[in-house]
Amino acid sequence: MNGERDKKHETEQRKVRNVKQKDGIVMPVPVSQTDLPDGYANLLASLKKRIQQERIKTVLSANCAMVMLYWDIGASILERQQTEGWGAKVIDRLSFDLKEAFPDMKGFSSRNLKYMRKFAESWRDRQLVQRTVALIPWRSNLALLDKLKDLKQRLWYAQKTIENGWSRDVLSFQIETQLHKRLGKATNNFEIALPPADSDMASQIFKDPYIFDFLGTAEPRRETELEQKLIEHLEKFLLELGQGFAFVGRQVHMEVGDDDFYIDLLFYHLKLRCYVVVELKAGKFQAGHVSQLNMYMNIVDDLMRHPDDKPTIGLLLVKEKNKTLAKYALAGYTKPMGVAEWERHITESIPENLKSSLPTIEEIEAEFSAEENDG
């Protein structure tokens, strides 16, 4: 009998816990996490991921539609200018009338209409626009128009922006540092040390030189100083390394027999599926650097590499490199290694908000809102 009363009391208490009263209205209260059924957390995570994906699709779809609208407007203006001799005053009037007709819409300033004209003039193929540059934000398109004259280079940077999810600031930085000239330029032995498919991918991932504009004005004279500065600016360092690099550690301790060794920087590359040992040198390249790097790679392969991982890759970053000497120094080694220089002061500075990962939905929406406000 007492057991039944206790059960009834517990049921009543649960009802009280699960409702609250406000202004005479009874409202349900969320069940506590301890009362949730098994599998609830997994369901919530799955739904949140799906909603996040759909939000991104919605924003990107809206952006694509807007960019195509801008292209159509620009093409119409361009056609009238070529056939009827329209001038700047007509564009100013068109801006006024469009703003009056659509007061709730942004983007119809005279300046933006002129950019639409330039956009259509620079990208003549509408289908190409729909497949490529319509997939990136309008402000990123303006960066392509302002900073590049060559169509092939514009297309190359547009495709890289789509692949890597670059913001406008990141795109501008990559253009200013001439990434298209640096990517795939590291001196390496990948062709003989890796299978063809892996060799091609690795060759395109590593660059020369690497731009460390975030180091400041003082020239690092020792490896420890250079390493410390790179760690202090790890996010920007990862951006310069390129997408896919995951930081594992610095001064990674390796004990071999009775000797201790310390790897400057250790990364794991998600696409190559391998560890990447990075050795830093504040001075000129020396042939002995390759031997040291090779030994560290052997240790990583022996002590850390998982059976599913591919062979460790080594990257030697030096202040000054003799390309011919580096090529000869790598000859004969069967471990995949690359040698590249690091430089500073190619551009004025790296924007503070540069990030190495894909943008969040909030950042995409903010970019989209900023484009509307720019109009």
State the gist of this model:
Helix content is 54%, strand content 15%.
H/E series, N to C? HEEHHHHHHHHEHHEHHEEEHEHEH
What is the count of DSSP helices, taking H or I runs of 4+ residues? 16
Mean pLDDT: 84
Level-1 CATH class name of the largest domain: Alpha Beta
- Counted up, domains total 2
Can you tell me about this structure?
- The longest helix has 45 residues, at 40-84.
- The protein is 54% helix and 15% strand.
- The radius of gyration is 28 Å and the shape is globular.
- It has 2 domains: 51-177 and 366-374, no CATH class; 181-343, Trna Endonuclease, Chain: A, domain 1, CATH 3.40.1350.10.
- Helix 6 (138-147) packs parallel to helix 8 and helix 12 packs across helix 13 (234-241).
- It has 375 residues and is of the alpha/beta class.
Question: Secondary structure elements and their pairing?
Answer:
Blueprint: H1 2-17, E1 19-22, E2 25-28, H2 40-84, H3 88-101, H4 110-122, H5 126-131, H6 138-147, H7 151-164, H8 168-176, H9 179-182, E3 187-188, H10 190-193, H11 196-205, E4 210-211, H12 223-232, H13 234-241, E5 245-256, E6 259-269, E7 274-280, H14 287-303, E8 313-318, H15 323-330, E9 337-343, H16 361-374
Parallel strand pairs: 4-9, 7-8, 8-9
Antiparallel strand pairs: 1-2, 3-9, 5-6, 6-7
Helix pairs in contact: 2-4, 2-16, 6-8, 12-13
Features of this protein?
16 helices; alpha/beta; two-stranded antiparallel ribbon; Trna Endonuclease, Chain: A, domain 1; 375 residues
